[in-house]
Specification:
alpha+beta, Lipocalin, about 45% strand, globular, single chain, 8-stranded antiparallel β-barrel
Length: about 130
Amino acid sequence: MTAPVAQTPSVGTTLRFLATFIFAVCCLPASQAQSANVAGRYQCVQVKNQGRTTACASAPLILKHDGHFELRGWEGSYLVTGNWVELSDSSLKTRAKIEPGHRIVLRYRGNHGVVEMVYERRVADLGKTSLG
């Protein structure tokens, strides 16, 4: 009885694997985390609550270049994932939607239902930065 011979992959199998790998690396989209430059000062422009939309006089949302934020005394870090800004500190985490027109919309459940706060970065403050 002879010892079994180890089979090696054929050249065709190796080339197919290599072609698939190159396609995946070159053609599939990369992760979008931290792709949009959203750092800046956002003014609250409107609040929607209980079906009513009103002007907003709330403190601004400040997204710093180092990945930290400030909002009405709440401080923590943020991460951009696709069209969302995830705001968090050691005990609380929420996310806000990035919308066209340099807007960030934060929705949360308040005492009287869902509240939607719309923050907007003014074009004059933007300079040459863009918002994904």
